Batch of 4 targets.
Target 1
Amino acid sequence: MSESNRAAKLEIDGKTYELPIFSPTVGPDVVDIRKLYGTAGVFTYDPGFTSTASCDSTITFIDGDKGELLHRGYPIDQLAEKSHFLEVCYLLLYGELPSPAELEDFESRVTNHTMLHEQMVYFFRGFRRDAHPMAIMVGVVGAMSAFYHDSTDISDEWQREVASIRLIAKMPTIAAWAYKYSIGQPVVYPRNDLDYASNFLRMCFAVPAEDYEVNPILSRAMDRIFTLHADHEQNASTSTVRLASSSGANPFACIAAGIACLWGPAHGGANQACLEMLREIGTPDRIPEFIARAKDKDDPFRLMGFGHRVYKNFDPRAKVMKQSADEVLELLGVENNPTLQVAKELEKQALADDYFTDKKLFPNVDFYSGIILEAMGFPTSMFTPIFAVSRTIGWISQWKEMISDPQMKIGRPRQLYQGETLRDYVDIENR
Ligand code: ACO
């Protein structure tokens, strides 16, 4: 972070305060308000953090106007095309693309941590069968701190590293077991001769009674979905992880907090909500009715999979996802899938409508991911758990960056209090 020689001037009641301006390597300048309360006695007001940088980071950069997403400087479309998920994990976690030897070592470390402590099976069994897999994941990931005591001391760099590898490695096992439990099938143990995506597909779809062959096309599509969701700078769940860990809480508890936040329909739950919406629309002739509802101020309905807090142009991940949807559905022989037809027509009609273009509402990554996941055989309830598996690396990389920063402070926002002023307690008989 470099301080430029410019300063912003803020005038309050005739007094002027100078606020330093920092220049990032790329992106808009940032006004430093850290000393504002101390010098001027005022807070800033920014609900939803629409104009506030909560940290400095070197991991991910988004240019929402251009529709650009970079991980450590590398564009997401190049990573989705040329790289694969575990290599992107290495890049996010350590800052550079690995050499062949570094990648082999990293993959072997992740692979050797895929099993869960056997006692954890009883944890799954404690849930109702109809529990949402996200509910199970929040509980089981939080419970990891009760099983892996030797990686909860955040002041120990080695323990931080072990916790990171454990979370990346075990999250697919946890998500797959949550699914197996919900459909009443026995859990499938990980196989370390398979790559990350193939292993996840096998743990979700294999049964002990039959051999299971992983389809390489589906495995590639799964890996791409993981890659496209790996990190997205200071989004709601990542900020939740950072805020939770700022108190010094252990990494498993913090990632469980991130999973809880991701569950909401405005965030990770959007792909489930989007597919349900496309199914409800059902046929292209009903699209105008739903577009009219989305535009109606008195109707809370929104086009799910449309709009983004940061992207005011096409979400670059949506472009890759759309291409993947076409490929997967064609290879599975379901290119005439009615949901895909509705999605394509809805996208066309919305993008030709001034309401959406004026508000810069474009399809986001979730618009097409649900269609691919459904074609692969996943129920909608597994969409957000799959997002959680992918985003774990982003949460961990951001957590690790924050913990390693000597300037780390507990996160403690201020407020604009609008409540009652001081008043005396009134005894119950006098109310
Ligand atoms: N359909 C219809 N109108 C919309 C939509 C939508 N999907 N999204 C935003 N708008 C409208 C709002 O009504 C608002 O209109 P107004 O200015 O007339 O009041 C305007 O666009 C701005 O909307 P905000 O909610 O203020 O924008 P914000 O940046 O806070 O919200 C969000 C972004 C939450 C993603 C929103 O676009 C939305 O709810 N989209 C649908 C859910 C979704 O797809 N979420 C996935 C996000 S991506 C991810 O998490 C991976």
Target 2
Amino acid sequence: MEKRIAVISGDGIGPEIVKEARKVLDAVCKTYGHTFVYEDVLMGGCSIDACGEPLTEEAIAACKSADAVLMGSIGGNTSTSPWYQLPPEKRPEAGLLKLRKSLNLFANLRPAYLYKELAAACPLKEAVGEAGFDLLIMRELTGGLYFGERHTTVENGIRTAVDTLSYNEEEIRRIAIRGFDVARKRRKKVTSVDKANVLDSSRLWRTVVNEVAADYPDVTLEHMLVDNCAMQLVKDPAQFDVILTENMFGDILSDEASMITGSIGMLSSASLNDTSFGLYEPSHGSAPDISGQNIANPIATILSAAMMLRYSFDLGKEADAIEDAVRQVLTEGFRNGDIWSEGCQKVSCSEMGDLIAARIK
Ligand code: IPM
Ligand code: MG
């Protein structure tokens, strides 16, 4: 099979972790006889430096013409980087939001799984870590507060800032369908998370999710308020299968979910539209404080590459091979610094890539 992959290495640790994911993809090509053709695309701070804006029309076109996009991370230190002196729509993150919107990537899948080998790195009570958990956050990605009308005004010397949280029923329906579809392939439970005790957008969310649920009698649906969900995630994460939620809640809950897997360096993600096209990136950021030191954890990006094989290229066996290789390396006791514990062998970013690539079979 031949596929074209647009590669956005981005900023901070982005180039280091993407390099390791490509190493693993090359091992897959060698073992399974595929060809992946890579095209480098600029986005984020590096694009601001080179082109004066975080995402150019050419970059969007390059992504659109590829079969999938593999991404590292974008952005810098928000207190010290000159990128954050620019107006908001010129900053690195604006590039990512524009790309998500331009490619209509409304469905963001963030699986959070606790490897039993990493139980010691889980910050929760020992019994919770030992019980393990395996959940998936289905986050709406092109609506809500992120894309609503916003402005800042000054009236009589008083500054006021406004952000708007708006959803229409079609936006809710299509992400709910994705949530139920994926639950059907898992443990058949959807927890829809909202703030329906306060927000109109959440009340509509709940109504539409109930309507969609009628077509999935085999899937159990429960509703949960987002503040309660934040609490339940640290109390009893094993209760969750699919968490279905809007953009902002999903952003916050997915960081929380990643931390209880041991490290944010373990959490992969896929952002999909209504075709097989997708953008694959780790859920973590660009970690500018550790960039260039070859100490970042590349596993989230490597697992995102596995999601790309599974969802965009329909290469399930090859995706399994990557996930098995990751598990094997963990079982053998190799760890990056963020997931290291007593008795394990600490390895660098590139060593982790080598170890995983060597175990692709
Ligand atoms: C994420 C990130 C982004 C988001 C930022 C970089 C705009 O935090 O993918 O979770 O908020 O969606
Ligand atoms: Mg986030």
Target 3
Amino acid sequence: MSALRAYPRFITIEGGEGAGKSTVLHALRDALAGESEVVCTREPGGTPLAERIRGLLLDPGHEPAAADTELLLVFAARAQHVREVVIPALERGAWVISDRFTDSSYAYQGGGRGIAAERIAALEHGYVGIEPALTLLLDLGVAQGRDRARARDAVPDRIEAEHDAFFERVRAAFLERAAAHPARVHVIDAARAADVVAADAVRAVQSLRVPA
Ligand code: T5A
């Protein structure tokens, strides 16, 4: 398999439900503002077409999605997002901060749904081809994350409606990814106050060595 291309200004934020990714993303955007262009985006989504795929993925109103269907939908959305938004922005020298990226597929479709990592890696290498320089993994207990998400959303989406055992597998898969990629993935204890978590995230980004 060909190597993934790592872009020095590409940062992703990962974690389970309600871990505080959006909150951290806003703090990073503010910390990097003024330095150069900062593009904040999210997955699944980030383009009109990919957002429509996200709608399909999270809609509880159709028959249960087969695990393979879910996998192919997240990668279809990602292929569009990477080509339309992420690579063009990185090529013009912008920072790109993405709320979720391919690590989420290893965690949710791999850990959660039980799809073999090799099959996910084949899609990653075949249709994505890039990886972040830094991934901030916001680690939080499943019950605490669900409480936070519940306090915010009245109706759970299709994936939020999964049982706790699913989210325990997701969390374990994220931590396995962090252990396998220690130079890229920075684990942050997300159980602390939002400002403390954000300060840790900003410090990790400031310690990145980025060519001028
Ligand atoms: N998915 C995604 C896959 O299955 N495969 C894939 O490849 C990809 C890319 C959508 C879903 O798609 C799945 C995973 C997801 O199920 P999403 O929109 O990122 O992805 O879904 P969520 O994880 O549900 O995102 P949330 O918006 O719920 O969570 P966040 O962004 O992590 O949390 P945030 O910042 O909105 O915070 C949640 C609440 O907690 C508070 C906030 O104010 C907010 O009310 N909060 C804190 N409270 C106390 N202390 C802190 N430190 C706090 N930080 C935030």
Target 4
Amino acid sequence: MITGKYPSLRLRRSRKNDWSRRLVEENNLTPNDFILPIFLIDGNNKKQSIKSMPDVFRYSLDKISFVIDKAIKNKLPMVALFPHTEKKKKNLLGTEALNENNLVCKAIQIIKKRFKNEIGIMCDVALDPYTSHGHDGLIKSNYVLNDETIKVLIDQSLLQAQMGCDVLAPSDMMDGRIGEIRKNLDSNGYNMTQILSYAVKYASNFYGPFRDAVGSKKLLKGDKKNYQMDFRNNDEALREVTLDIKEGADMVMVKPGLPYLDIIKSVKENFKIPVIAYQVSGEYSLLSNGINKGLVNKDVILENLISFKRAGANAIITYYADRINNIIS
Ligand code: PBG
């Protein structure tokens, strides 16, 4: 590897001028690398700020075309829809997930009708926006049931596919759900609907602001450690990915992002499959608050995002995606 030594070899030579730095740059970002999460809320003419997430909003459905139009103009390949569900629509079983008139279903239809295939739509498959206890599945004696939950997730997946969702993203961490969802989609004629598995999802302390955004924070009883991964583990991440690929995942996600760059790298190196990194809400809010307080300058955003790319991520889900051109140019 090393082909010379000081003083004849000077690595600073290639760093001296801007043109030269650009010439040897190894990683770069384009709008194709980003997925924009959008929070939905009931009502009309609403662009509601979220206390724990500066510059992120919940939009009512009549505003959705405006948001999508901007995403398309910014050349983003995909958006991810997340509903803030009214408390009165939540219950123990999360039945609102299967209501074809729920916020996500309506939003998919509005977007597909107006924008066709100009942009991809990704939807979470999990019950947490809809359950009165804030967990991703059905519970019995405070334990999230696996197989019973999968039965509901299968129906939720099919419903979202029928509405026009392009990429289903199971974020629930039940064992075996990718295979069951794939089978059910295929047997119902949805063999071209993609699955992006939240394969490696850690039980993280960085999800707080998101739970606030979807209105599950105050409702959540306990934690999610009996289904999301222990952040002490890395081998287990590879086992999760192995299974999800076998079961039919088209892409896999690692979540959160920055504290898990090692995992992104090893998933990419081991499996050569599209890997999506999720820069989650807590990462976003910590950075944004630091910038807003003047503790760090805004270039820390680019530095964070490039690190995902360097680690091997194909794309990044980030709440900065609606401002990405200012950040990467
Ligand atoms: C729901 C879900 C969560 C996130 C995405 N989908 C939260 C959770 O598992 O509690 C977190 C995203 C973020 O923090 O930005 N299953």
